[in-house]
Amino acid sequence: MAQKPLSHIGIIGAGAWGTALAAVAARAGRKVTLWAYEPEVADSINRQHLNELYLPGIPLDTSIRATTDLSAVSANDALLLVCPAQALRSVTGSMARHVKPGTPVAICAKGIEQATGKLMTEVVAETLPEAVPAVLSGPSFAADVANGLPTAVTLACADDALGEALVEAIGIPAFRPYLASDLIGAELGGSVKNVLAIACGIVEGRKLGASAAAALTARGFAELTRLGVALGARAETLGGLSGLGDLILTCGSRQSRNMSLGAALGEGRDLAEIIAERVTVAEGVATAPAVVALARRHNVEMPICEAVAAIVTGEASVDDAIGGLLARPFKREA
After folding, report:
1. How far is CA 32 from CA 8, 27, 46, 216, in A?
2. How far apart are CA 242 and CA 245, in angstroms?
3. Is 126 annotated as a binding residue?
4. Active-site residue numbers?
5. Residue 269: strand, helix, or coil
6. What pLDDT is stored for residue 334 in this prediction?
7. 236: number of Cβ within 10 Å
8. What is the model's pTM?
9. Of 2, 167, 268, 322, which is most buried with the most CB atoms under 10 A?
10. Where does the chain bind sn-glycerol 3-phosphate (predicted)?
11. For residues 78-103, b (16+ Cβ closer than 10 Å) or e, as one string?
């Protein structure tokens, strides 16, 4: 039986990325319902067609409807989960009874659950067991996407027909999803790169130079690949848009929440103060200790991620963490 078109897209999370994806789906001609946690965000989108809190200054299609009612979003043809990673279990648990069996659910959150060490696909398998999971991930700043600038991402789904239907539902010339079947590789790249971006930000904030930033990015990618392969991901997925592509973007610009947070740490600022002054979430902070715990369970060495975890948990100062990495013994590259 042919897969029916996905004409009504529900988006869970009206932060910058969720709002940008709502803009893309509307441009693709879909009916879009966007769930917002904050009533003022939903009101701004519906009345002014702007999300001034998370994506200021970018006009939104007037057809996008925002709501604070999860049940109004959950029964749509397809769902994009764009809430923060650490809130995914709570949000999907609350919407579970409204989601129809067989609904494609694309995970757009990038992180690892800190309390359990589980990947986002594992969380969704527990909370939405009758949904069909997919992962949407890749190098994509929300403002670029919302402004219609060219972007390419990975869309991973084990069900080819549903994956193709999702690509057709949200793909437009300026937003190009590349279909894959490796969900672990697609989601792990987006999760680990956030941790590595904090490290690259620290390099910039401490003024350690472009050479150090390049070395850290390359060695960080080696860590990401080791963990991914140990978990069953494909090396070609990790070397694609959702892995290397996202790493390059996130580690190279302070437009990245995680990179800018790392830069502030490198400049000597206090983590709690940095977080308190932001309305957005830097997922790498919570993901760093979860990545390290996951790597240890699989006997994978990840010294850069360990250094970031030590910094954000207060176990090491920035200077001590940098010194520890530079004092490591010389070894073969591979």
Report:
1. 6, 10, 12, 40
2. 6
3. no
4. 193
5. coil
6. 79
7. 11
8. 0.96
9. 322
10. 110, 138, 140, 193, 246, 256-258
11. bbbbbbbbbebbebbeebbebbeeeb
